[in-house]
Structures are given as structure tokens and as C-alpha cells.
Amino acid sequence: MSEPLPRQTIRELPDVLISQIAAGEVVERPASVVRELVDNAIDAGARQITLRLLGGGIRLISVEDDGCGIPSEELAVALKRHATSKIVSLQDLESVATMGFRGEALAAINSVSEMSLLSRIEGASSAFLLDGQTGEVKPAARATGTTVEVKELFFSTPARRHFLKSESTELAHCIEAVRRHALVRPEVSFAIWHEGKIVAQWRSHAGEAGWNQRLADVLGEEFVASSVNIDFRSGPVHVRGRAGTPDAARARADQQFAYVNGRFVRDKVITHGARSAYEDVLHGHRQPVYVLYLQMNPARVDVNVHPTKIEVRFRDSREVHQAMRHAIESALAVPRAQLLTTTSAPTQASTLAPTNNTWAQRGMAFGADRLHEDPARAMADLKALWSTPPQVEEESPAGFYSSKIQLQTATAVASQGEHEWPLGRAIAQLQGVYILAENTQGLVVVDMHAAHERIVYERLKQQLDTTQITSQPLLIPASFSATPQEIATAESCADVLMQLGLEVSTLSAKTLAVRAVPTSLAQGDCVELARSVLAELAQHDAATVVQRAQNEILATMACHGAVRANRKLSLDEMNALLRQMEATERSDQCNHGRPTWRQVGMRELDALFLRGR
Ligand SMILES: Nc1ncnc2c1ncn2[C@@H]1O[C@H](COP(=O)(O)OP(=O)(O)OP(=O)(O)O)[C@@H](O)[C@H]1O
Ligand SMILES: [Mg+2]
Fold first, then answer.
1. pTM of the predicted model, to two decimals?
2. How far apart are CA 191 and CA 212, in angstroms?
């Protein structure tokens, strides 16, 4: 054991050291400086922001704006710690409307770099330049606005400098920092230069249409084409923006942008709310894409909880979670087929087509993707899935959907004219697996089982919304040693557990017993089941957990209830299925998140045959 250190006198730290300590939290890398300086430019009302970098931002970061500027006599104050023009009282702090409010950023950056401020206000005789090292102010030239130059970041704190990554990595982080700003400020133009070359430029756009244009500029046209508009109010929370369709999901969570009152945030409640909205339509571990802007009274969110302000704390996180979930869920529920008829003329084939537009990607339409990955296994899976005899009645636990859910005939469903059917008129069944239909854009290919499975599932969900999950008592209760957290949850959520068909009681201070489980899960490991449900209940609100559990059970039932392969369908039955798809929520994906239908446009068919038009 080492000797205790001899006691030292308590002393006040020098100012520079205090700033350097603060900088440790605020300035992690060049991108942090970029974020702070662009925040300041935006708070100053800039319409044009130009960023110039050298060496990935390590050698130089210069941010130039056309905002209101800083008067010469305030230049030196701007560099002081806790000096700000943005708030004056605690009341202001509780309803902050600006990006900055701590009056800390410039002081912190100045303590770990060589910094200068060049600024001019409207009506001044000239601009003034402040040297951050010496404090000297002298007249200089520039138009109204401010240029902040930050050279040799961490030159005085070599330990920090060693943590920096390669120049190209730091540059990428700097660009990402500006992208986050650009996505929420379409009215501001941005330009980024690196080593004298322009690396990104986004022009300003006005009005509502400007938002989509900016999203397309920053994230690509595909993002806008494969996402749906969101504009949803839930209590005090207003959610706007765009959420990608399940098709547009990615392997990584790199296109998830959430803003609270104009500030980019990374927040568990928001991410989880979004994730749960996709639960029912997204395949496996795919990550949804979205850019969402939450607006709420600033008093309902505390922005003063994290040094870089990237985290916030909501007064009522449940209301935020629900707003996110419902906003996305309701927008995604509308089947694409419905959008086709309401928003586009028949000639606009390109906007109607699913998001993946190349022929190879469209190979998906024929299930080819599954065959490419592992043909033997895919075929075996298919056969297994489809060879089960269609004894719907016997498999269904309650038999309650077997007779009710059948393919109604076309006449019963559609009174519209044939030419208006978004998914077209059925023309044939292919290999007992696909339905082929003809619509105004060309060919529609439908995965029969997948589509019907979704229809059955959505119908079951509607029927079961109020019904309980049936439960089966265990002959011998299964006891297990539980954590205090698990015991507390079991006691406080007994009602919810009952609703889920689970009965869990306390045996002792450290033991719980499972006495009943849902009938459909009676074969499984009931302790494991109870544990995972308790863990979920501890984390999320009860309604979400109940719904999720119900959905899982229903999905299993729907799979059994849906039409199997090799079942011959009449044209009437096929048309009926198409009409039901048009009317069923989330019918573009099967219950496992795979697409249920694809459009093959005339243009693509023509291209296949090298046919010019
Ligand atoms: N680009 C700019 N244009 C006009 N004024 C600026 C600019 N940058 C900084 N200022 C002024 O300097 C002050 C200090 O800036 P600084 O970034 O240190 O603090 P802040 O933005 O007020 O708070 P925070 O530390 O949360 O960013 C600001 O309050 C603002 O008045
Ligand atoms: Mg600031």
C-alpha cells in the first residue's frame, strides 16, 4: 500500500487552469470547436457560414459568419469565462432559446489553442481584431459579421493532442458537426473548405419546401424519396420531420438525427421511442433512418445537464417517448398503395416505385435476394414454411380467426373502378408463391403468403386490442432467486403481469415464484420469460410492454393463419387479397419486416428488352 500524501494548502486555481479544466469537458476534438463556433454564428443570426480547415481542423479552424458581430469594446469580454450575452437570470436559463448560454465556449477554446476574434457590427467605422493570447485589440478589415480563428488546437496540452485521430478522421467529424446544424437550418448556407478545397456546400432554401430540399442536399435524394413526412402533435410535444420507410433501414444507426427545440441531441428516450415504432415492420437488427424535430415549451426540457449540451433531460420522458412512437407509427401505417392513388398521377412511374430502383435491387421482387445469399438454405426454409398443410382450424389456439379471416371475394371489397386500383388487377399466380398483377405503372409482384400474413396479423391486433392473453397455471410453481429490483417490479406491476398472462408472486425477500404463464408459451423456460418481462417492465412503460408481448404472440398465430404456398387462388381471390393490402395498415412489410410487394415499372421492363420508347 502506498503512503498517504502529505496534506497541502487549499488554494484557488489560476484562471487559465480553470479554463483548461473546463475545456477538458467541452473541447474533445476539432469537431467540438466547430460545433461551438457554428452554434455562436447561428445565435448571431448568420445566413452564411463558411468553415475553413487545415490539417483536419488540428492546425486551423476558421469560422466566418455574416451575423450581428461583436462591438470592439466587448471583444475581450467575450473571451472571459462565464461571460455571455444570452442569459441574465435563472429564469432565462430555465427557458433557453439560444444554442449557447454558459458563456464558457470561447474561454475554454482560447485556453487550449491560439485564438483570434475578428468582428464588425453594423454601422461601425471598421472591424476589430482581438488576439486571444495577448488581449491586444486593433482595427482591421472585414464586412459585418465575425471570423473566429483557432490555430494549433491542444498545442499547450500535448497529452490531449495525442488523443486525436488521423487528419481525415478529424475532418470527417468536423463535417458531421456541420451536417447536424445544416439539417435543422435550411435558411442558412454552409460551406466547408479543407486545405483550400471545398469539401461540402449547402445553399440556403426558404419555406416549407426548403426543408426537404436541404434534407436531400445533405442526406441524398434517396433519403427523401424513401421516407414519409411526419407532423404530429401529442400533448405538449410537436414532432415534425421525416422517417424512413422500413425498406430504407440501414445496417448502422448513422442516419438518425433528432433535435429538441432546434438542438441536436442524442437521447435514449427519443431513440427508444423511434425504435419501438419500427418494431413491427423492421427486419432483424436493421437500423431505421430519420430526421425528426421535436418542439416543446423550453421549460419542459432541461438543456443544462451535459457540458456539450448533446444530452437533455425531459420533465416528462414518457410523453416524449409516446410522441415519438405514435408520430412514426401512424405515418408508417399508411400502406404505400394508398399513397400512390392520392399523391401521384399515373405517369410518374419513378416516384411510385419502391425505393430501390436498380434492376438488381428489384431482384428482391422475385425473392431473389434470399436465393442469392444461401440458395440451399433459402429453398429449404421456403419449403418448410410452405409445406405445412393449411390446417388452419387445428393450429389456431382459439379457432377464432379461422373462419372469419378468409379471402373475401373481390366484389365484396372494391367498388372502385379497376383502373384506380393501386396494386392493379391480378393476372396470374406464379409457382404458387407470387401473385402477378398489372397496374398503370406496369407489373406488380406480390409475395402471397407474406402479404396475407400481415393482413391476418393486423386484423388479429384489432380484435385483440381489448382481450386478455390466456394464461395457464403451472402444476409446480417455478421459484428463482431474484434481485431487489425484480422483486420491486413484480410487486408494483402485478396487474400488468396478469394482463400478460403471467402470475409472479413473492416467496421471500430474495425469491420469486412463477405460478402461471401465457398458454402459448407454456412450453418455454418460464423463469427466463418472467425475468425478461420484469427487466422490460423496469425499463419501459407498461402499455408498451403489453402491446409488444401481445404483438409477438399474434404474429406467431398470423403466420399459421396465412395462406400457404401452392394453394391455388382464383383471380377473384387474388384480387381480393390485393384490395385488402391496399386497405391494411403496414401492409408493405410482412410481420418479419420483409417487403410484401414490388413494382416493376414499364421503363424497367423496356430496359430489360433494350426497348427504346
Ligand atoms: N460569431 C459570433 N457573433 C456574434 N457574437 C458572438 C459570436 N461568437 C460569440 N459571440 C459573443 O460572445 C459571447 C461568448 O461566446 P461563448 O460561445 O463563449 O458563450 P455563449 O455562446 O454565450 O455560451 P456557451 O458557452 O454555452 O456557448 C456570446 O454570448 C456572444 O455574445
Ligand atoms: Mg457559444
1. 0.75
2. 19
Calculate how far, in angstroms, residue 56's C-alpha sits from the geometric centre of ligand 1: 24
Q: Which atom of ligand 1 is nearest to the CA of 108?
A: 18
Predicted confidence (pLDDT) per residue in 201-241, tens digit = 999 998 888 999 999 999 999 999 999 999 999 999 999 99
Residue 56 CB coordination number (10 Å): 25
What residue ranges define each of the domains in the chain, with the CATH number in brackets?
Answer: 15-202 (3.30.565.10), 220-333 (3.30.230.10), 346-613 (3.30.1540.20)
At 95, list the grid cell: 427557458
Helices (H), 63-153: 75-78, 90-93, 105-111
Give the Å distance between the CA of 33 and the centre of ligand 2: 10
On the question of pLDDT at 460 being above 70, the answer is yes
What pLDDT, in 10s, does the model give residues 409-430?
434 444 556 778 899 999 999 9
Distance of alpha carbon 229 from alpha carbon 241, whole angstroms: 6
Backbone φ and ψ of 591, nearest 5°: -65, -15
40 CB less than 6 Å from ligand 1?
A: yes
Index of the ligand 1 atom closest to the CA of residue 69: 4
Q: Looking at residues 494-520, what average pLDDT do you find?
A: 88
Task: Report residue 451: phi and psi, to 5°.
Answer: -65, -45
pLDDT for res 223: 96
Q: What residues have their beta carbon closer than 5 A to ion ligand 2?
A: 40, 100, 105
Instruction: Identify whether the C-beta of residue 19 lies closer than 8 Å to the C-beta of residue 136.
Output: no
| In 279-316, alpha helices (H) | none
